[in-house]
């Protein structure tokens, strides 16, 4: 039972710290950013969260369910490799389509320019997709 309590404490603190950091940094953001800049930042953060869900299709979440269905280390490695390769191709294709059809991409927030704002968010989201698999793997391995 102590292992459960220890892991729960780790994940709780790990989830609270980024949110608390955003809250603590809010006065700093508002002092340096105009209301329009802050609106752009928050709008594109919401777009990034939605985009991340669409790109990954929550494939990484399957690790929680399927990892222990494989018995040998080779099977587990093949499973994780397949997820990584699939995620790479899906994410790359999705981001390329968004870049190719940037006139459609900007329809979500028409007042925000594609260059540089959307470009930054698209690239940040694309590379952020690949950090989820190692994090989920570490959670499954209880590390």
What is the overall silhouette?
flat
Q: Segments where pLDDT lies below 50 for 5+ residues? A: none
Per DSSP E runs of 2 or more residues, the count of β-strands stands at: 0
Mean pLDDT: 91
Which percent bin holds the helix content?
Answer: over 70%
Largest sheet: none
Strand content: under 5%
Distance between the termini: 16 Å
* Rg, nearest Å: 19 Å
Q: Can you count the helices? A: 6
SSE order, one letter for each helix or strand:
HHHHHH
Q: Name the quaternary structure.
A: single chain
Task: Please identify the structural class as seen in this structure.
Answer: mainly alpha
Strands, helices and their partners?
Elements: H1 2-32, H2 35-56, H3 62-66, H4 73-100, H5 102-105, H6 114-140
Helix pairs in contact: 2-6, 4-6
Describe it:
This protein is an all-alpha fold and 143 residues long. The chain is 82% helix and 0% strand. The chain contains six helices and no strands. Helix 2 (35-56) packs across helix 6 and helix 4 (73-100) packs antiparallel against helix 6 (114-140). The longest helix is centred in the N-terminal third of the chain and has 31 residues, at 2-32. The radius of gyration is 19 Å and the shape is flat. The relative contact order is 0.12.
């Amino acid at each position: 039972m102590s292992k459960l309590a220890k892991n729960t404490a780790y994940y709780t603190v790990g989830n609270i710290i980024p949110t608390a950091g955003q809250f603590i940094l809010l006065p700093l953001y508002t002092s340096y950013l105009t209301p329009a800049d802050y609106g752009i930042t928050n709008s594109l953060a919401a777009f990034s969260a939605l985009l991340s869900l669409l790109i990954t299709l929550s494939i990484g979440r399957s690790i929680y369910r399927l990892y222990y269905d494989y018995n040998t280390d080779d099977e587990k490695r093949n499973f994780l490799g397949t997820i990584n390769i699939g995620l790479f191709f899906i994410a790359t294709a999705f981001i390329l389509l968004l870049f190719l059809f940037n006139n459609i991409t900007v329809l979500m927030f028409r007042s925000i320019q594609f260059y540089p704002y959307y470009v930054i968010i698209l690239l940040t989201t694309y590379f952020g997709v690949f950090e989820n698999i190692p994090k989920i793997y570490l959670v499954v391995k209880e590390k």
